[in-house]
Write a structure and sequence with these properties.
Helix content: 40-55%
CATH class: Alpha Beta
Bound molecules: 4-nitrophenyl phosphate
Structural class: mainly alpha
CATH superfamily: Response regulator
Strand content: under 5%
Strand order of the largest sheet: 1-2
Largest sheet: 2 strands, parallel
Oligomer: single chain
């Protein structure tokens, strides 16, 4: 989950799917993304995110949608990208059980010394998008190892 659902979370969704397939546990899990905001509903991910992701072999075809109450029932984990995102998700959770499913992506970073969140790349250049992908590839592998055993 992120704010716009056009940069970080659609990339996370596809990176997660890809790393889960790497060790054969992809079929057991459903991965989806959504945003807390509603500015870009129905849109494909940001062109810059799609281009940087494609260079690493990820095709981003997700259509932006807003987080809904059902997400907190349907999914086992709701992974947020930064502190503001986590706060907004907590506000949107329909009940305590849903709120307990929220976890920051940074909980899965191997090296949490420099970054404690996935920085919003929207107002950044190429470096920001590459950083998002670097952090997501690291975190998603660790998340996969946690859920797939
Ligand atoms: P995201 O990035 O939360 O990673 O999808 C953003 C995309 C759009 C906006 C903000 C962040 N926006 O303000 O439109």
């Amino acid at each position: 989950m992120c704010l716009g659902n056009i940069c970080r979370s659609p990339a996370a969704e596809e990176v997660m799917r890809s790393v889960a397939e790497e060790n054969g546990c992809g079929k057991k899990w459903e991965f989806d993304s959504a945003g807390t905001g509603r500015y870009h509903i129905g849109s494909l991910p940001d062109d810059r995110m799609r281009i940087h992701a494609r260079r690493r072999g990820y095709e981003l075809t997700h259509r932006c949608r807003q987080v809904c109450g059902e997400d907190f029932r349907h999914f086992d984990l709701i992974v947020g990208m930064d502190a503001s995102n986590i706060l907004n998700l907590r506000r949107m959770a329909p009940d305590i059980e849903g709120e307990e499913k929220i976890i920051p992506m940074s909980a899965f970073f191997s090296l949490a010394t420099r970054y404690d969140h996935v920085p919003d790349p929207y107002y950044e250049g190429a470096e920001g998008f590459e950083l998002v992908l670097d952090l997501l590839e690291d975190a998603c592998r660790n998340l996969r190892d946690t859920i797939c055993g």
